[in-house]
Design a protein that fits this description.
Blueprint (H helix, E strand, L loop, with lengths): L2 H8 L1 E5 L8 E4 L11 E6 L2 E7 L17 E2 L7 H14 L3 H8 L13 E5 L9 H9 L6 E2 H8 L3 H9 L3 E5 L19 H16 L3 E7 L5 H14 L3 E5 L7 H11 L4 E3 L5 H13 L4 E4 L11 E7 L7 E2 L5 E2 H11 L3 E6 L4 H8 L4 E5 L10 E6 L13 H12 L3 E5 L8 E4 L16 E3 L4 E3 L6 E3 L13 E4 L3 H11 L5 E4 L7 H12 L5 E4 L12 E6 L13 H13 L10 E6 L5 H8 L2 H15 L5 E10 L2 H13 L7 E14 L2 E11 L4 H11 L8 E6 L6
Parallel strand pairs: 9-16, 9-17, 10-12, 10-13, 11-12, 13-16, 18-28, 19-26, 19-27, 25-26, 27-28
Antiparallel strand pairs: 1-2, 1-4, 3-4, 3-5, 6-7, 6-8, 14-15, 20-24, 21-22, 22-23, 29-31, 29-32, 30-31
Helix pairs in contact: 2-3, 2-11, 4-5, 7-8, 16-17, 17-18
The structure holds adenosine-5'-diphosphate (ADP) and zinc ion (ZN).
Adenosine-5'-diphosphate binds next to helix 8.
Amino acid sequence: MARPTRVAASATIPVLMPLWLDQPYDYLAPEGVELAPGDFVLAPIGPMQRIGVVWDGAPGDPPPKKLKSVIEKLDAAPLPEVSRRFAEWVARYTLTPLGMALKMMMSASEAFDAEAQRWGYRLAGSVPPRMTPGRARVLEAAANGLVWPKSALAEAAGVSYSVIDGLADAGALVRVELPRARMRAPLPDFAQVELGPSQARAAHSLREAVAAGAYSVSLLDGVTGSGKTEVYFEAVAEAIARGRQSLILLPEIALTGQFLARFEARFGCRPAEWHSAVSPAERGRIWRAVASGEAKAVAGARSALFLPFADLGLIVVDEEHDASYKQEDKASYQGRDMAVARGWLGKCAVVLASATPSIDSIVNVRRGRYNHIRLEERFAGAAMPNIEAIDMRIDKPERGRWLSPRLVDAVNETLARGEQALLFLNRRGYAPLTLCRKCGHRLDCPQCTAHLVEHRFRDRLACHHCGFMLPTPKTCPKCGAEDHLAPCGPGVERVAEEVAERWPEMRTAILSSDLTPTMKALREVIETVASGEARIVIGTQLVAKGHHFPRLATVGVVDGDLSLATADPRAAERTFQLLNQVTGRAGRSGTVGRGYIQTYLPEHPVMQAIVSGDREQFYEREIAARAEAGMPPFGRLAAVLVSAKTREEAQAYARAFALAAPRASRIEVLGPAEAPIAVIRGRHRFRLLAKAALEADLQAYMREWLACAPQAKGSVMAQVDIDPYSFL
Ligand code: ADP
Ligand code: ZN
């Protein structure tokens, strides 16, 4: 028979599965079903059935009889072409299998389920045979004759769903289909703000960038409190007015209830939120609304970049310098850089906003790739904070205390003026090290090269690398001595203890992720800070990100040197950004803010730059140093992390891996060297680094290297990280 052959030949299609696969595989289309690239389909793979995507390109030509058939086409908006190209781009750039890049775009399994029909209830007019007080309340609540969603009716009458079901069964309520809940549309002119002159100029160029409907990158570089959010909201307004979608990426979006409220005040409704704390059902709903183009604005974490936008007109990356944009687990990618790539593929405007732009972005401005839009002053003439370095070698705290007399005085003055003070320490827990004063034993993690951190509030010692926990022991596990275990050094809990001793009558708030485990709790604490109720705030980097605390006048950095002492080539940049951002929280409305940085290195260029406020000098120095060393953005890096259950295995494989490195004129391979954290979760770690000149094709080189490296056997694993940020 001719017919099946003909159909099979013309209906072979490539399907990509969201699995560890480098390419799509060919399938037969089910008879009579038209399939086009981007369509979601259910298809067999091995013994399973999975949802995959019809990919572009011609199918290969294996004998048709070997092909399996697609089971069905799903009723979902297709994955847009630009998303498919983006998946390919991400896969190529990060050396991730294409299927895994697709998987990141499908991280909303409920998007592919049929949407649940929602039901409402209306009074039928008849009286049920049996009456109860609960039933009576329902009938009374529904007496207005309107259609009630089940949950609303149950709540209004104070009854459980079963009471409503009972009334429906008895014929006293009629069940009616409810229409699908639609996303509310943000209104571009809901509440316009009056912009200052430099804000207006900045907003104008951003609006033009959006209106151009072409790829562009603008670095919105403005001091803390200059109104960057208000300014990029104008770009969002422009996109909305043109019917196009906007994506705003924020670090720690989950915490920024304040941001959502500001968006609502400006546009009349909240944006769709996308982050790990969004429920699966909501993720499904948002995914569909983004794909259909109904969701006009999404505020999200870096993973929102992989949503299937139907018509994306603007991407904003707020706090673009923030290290949390770099994802390291699973696929490793730098969200900010991927946002730029997505903008380029989708021909849309990209805005990178920061008070302390990354060196990479500043250099891109100098190379003429990005527009530079500056806001040099705080809004409404608010002054920049005065910053002072406290030399801890001279201004020493008392024994067992962590705040120097100078900082204590500053907090006292602040409180006396009725203002709020923040003490910042980027370290969770009570003490970073516990040791036995009798035998000198240090309490270390059994699975990592790391000290256990005491968390006194939870009465635990914890490893911050693997999550290992132990109830805080009373006796030394080595020598058995009782009451000789001593905490060494401070964490936020210990600073909070000192604050409680020094200012017992003051209301305080601690912002640390482990003390406020739920998002709701965290948002509540942030609210007490924003309202000024909490007079002294003690916090980790959670406080540094994007919040607006109007009463905050004084910021004290308990340990300004903490982030300098790492093996990271970006340590100076990171410290500069963090200190700037934290001290920039001070004095944002009216009062003159003050920042105090406790340091043992007051002459360090980072401290000098922060104190003098001469950021240009810092950027010059740092850029010159990077150029000199050929470090990013003047060269490119790729890291290989080799790990295994034993040190010997890891080392032997790392050496063999290094020997397999292809020769290339502008690429140099460094290592293997034992990682600074030599063991994590019981796995021994070695690092290799490929350092390439800008013109070299680092990805091609790494692919070649991986192809000729020996097979990893046993417990050995090798992971590649393009553009690494972590060197631990
Ligand atoms: P940044 O993001 O640059 O630190 P924000 O956008 O958070 O600054 O603005 C700081 C504060 O100033 C916010 O409370 C904001 O509402 C206010 N603000 C900024 N610009 C204006 C404006 N044009 N009109 C009214 N308030 C503004
Ligand atoms: Zn550990």
